[in-house]
Structure formats: C-alpha cells, structure tokens
Amino acid sequence: MYNYIPHPSNISKSSMLTSLLIEEGHAAYGIYWMVLELLRDCPAYKVGDNVKSIAWIIHSTDLDLVDRVLHNYGLFDRDGDGLLFSPWLLEQMEAYDNKKKKLQEAGRRGAAKRFASQSNGEAIATPSVEDGEAKAILYNVTKRNITQCNPTTSTDVDGEDWRGICSCQGLKVDGDLVEAIAKTQPEGHAPGYVAQVCHLYGIGQNVMDYLLRVTDNASLSNERYVKFCALIKRIEREKYSPAHPANFICSKIQ
C-alpha cells in the first residue's frame, strides 16, 4: 500500500524550485522529492534535522548537496524542537487529512443509518464478507439484565481458561482497532464483526483475541462463530443487557 503525496505536474516551474534547479540541477530536484517522501511517512510529517541520517535514508552519498537542498533554498524549515518539515507539504497534507476525516465520518454516519433501517432497527448478525467492515450496530440493549453465568468449569474444549481470560480482559476494544481489523478481514471470515461487538459491549482485547481464536478468526463456517452470531442477534432482539457480557458470551459459545 502506497501513501498519498501530491505531485503537481508543473511544480518544477514554480518559483520555489526554480532557483534550486538553476543552481543545483536535477539531482537536487530528485533529492528534494525524496525528502518529501520521507517526511510523508514520518509522524506529523517531520523528521530530525540530521543531514547524514537523511542522506543515508534517501540513499544519497553527496552530503553537501543534501545539506544545501535542506537549508539553502527556503524549501524546508525547523520547528521549535529542531524537527525538519516542509511548509508546502504540511499545507497539502492538512487539506488531505481534513478531507479524509470528513469522508470517514460521513461513511460512519451513512453505515449507522443504513444498518439501523434494516429489520426494523435490529442489528445484522451475519455480515456480508464483501462489505469490508463489521456490520453490527447494536441498539437499545438496556431493558433487562442477564445475570452472570456460573458454570461448573471455565475450561473449554480447547483447554483454554475462558473465565480467567474474562477476569483479565485487557484494554477495551476501541473504534480504531475495529476499523483496522475490519479492513483486513480475509474472504470467508468476519473478524470485524467480533471486534465491533466487543467494542460496543466494552469487552477487552484479551477476550476478543480469545473469541477470534476459538472461532477460527470468525470463519463463517465455524460452529462457534455461528453460535456467536445467533447469540448476539438474540440479545438484540430480546433487548437483553448482560451484566457481564464477556463471561456471558464466552459461556454460551462452548
């Protein structure tokens, strides 16, 4: 996957690069763009202002030329922490990032509205793999509680202590993790759905990992995953609110 960086076709004719091309030639122009590519992949689009390090990263052996490109033509600047950045690139990426955020937010709102309108507002328990993201939006799970189950043993058929895992759930599954998992789900699997359910119920990452392990990464043909989907649909349909969601879900898919 390639990261986006703008490259206008006529930028070499701009005033900010004319002096560089006249004085230093096309080698300097190549260095300029390789530094921009480097900055694009750095946090906040900034990097330490170290000529030797930058030259090594962009595979240039001409340290003097790299130094002149960085410091003699006003193409780059340094912030208060001494980090190198390109004012032009920051401006371009700010516009790009803002547009990306707006599109993502519009997509989330559209998905929530679309899912809510189906089946009289009930969640879709078995999402289509082609959709590329989890399709579980759970509504109104508040009307009555299910008490925590109390089975005689907490060890499942795979020999894992699911109750021990539930007692140490780890960090709660956040929206960014759900999105990342949903984007990478393989054909025939829906791990994004499991992640979405864990996120909406406040379940931790250790439990989510356990659920993905015992359902073969949420394989659509896995018996436990089928149980999981049916259970979540029943919770939504009957307006259950499990007092201990992780324990309840894990116990019911054994």
Question: Could you spell the SSE succession in H and E letters?
Answer: HHEHHEEHEHHHHHEH
User: Stretches where pLDDT falls below 50 for ≥5 residues?
Assistant: 119-153
Average residue-wise pLDDT: 79
Strand order in the largest sheet: 1-3-2
Q: What does this entry show, briefly?
A:
The protein is mainly alpha-helical and 254 residues long.
Write the layout of secondary structure elements.
Layout lengths: L14 H10 L1 H15 L6 E2 L2 H7 L5 H9 L5 E2 L4 E3 L1 H30 L27 E3 L15 H6 L7 H9 L7 H11 L3 H10 L8 H15 L2 E3 L2 H8 L2
Parallel strand pairs: 4-5
Antiparallel strand pairs: 1-3, 2-3
Structure keywords:
254 residues; mainly alpha; 3-stranded antiparallel sheet; 51% helix
What report would you give on this structure?
It contains 11 helices and 5 strands. It is mostly helical. It has a 3-stranded antiparallel sheet with strand order 1-3-2. The protein is elongated. The model is unreliable at 119-153 (pLDDT under 50).
